[in-house]
Specification:
This protein is of the alpha/beta class. It is built from 3 helices and 7 strands.
Length: about 160
Amino acid sequence: MVRSNVRLTQEGFDRLKATLEQEYRRLEESTKILQDLTGTSDDYDDSGLEDAKREKARIENRIDDLETQLDRAVIISENDPNRVDLGNVVALTDLDAQREMRVQVVSPVEAGVLEGDVPKVSDESPLGRALIGRGLGDEVTVTMGDKKRRYKIDAIV
């Protein structure tokens, strides 16, 4: 199976690496707890021991996922300043609510992170899909459920 690259901002890559390091620490703690429980347990069907085994397996799976994402990572460098692409911060006007907003378009791995003052939206979300490839001054219509919102691109950073 051919795995595609995961395009990430430098911040997203650094965050994934930090998360991986945290998961390695959790794995060490989980392994120690499991060893302690195994050494003191008279009954290997002990529910605490089984819970510890399941937790260790969850951490190992999370580590595998993070390592795969990092192995496939390609850090976004420079984009066309006239077109929205991954990593860009986009200033928008919500034409229906008459309010301004800013979002950063990122890969799904980075989306939803509440870091800083600019929300991150996935390029696979309705808003992200509508913005990718669009230019300054373009208007986009985004359908979310039964609602439609219109946005105007005011700036691309």
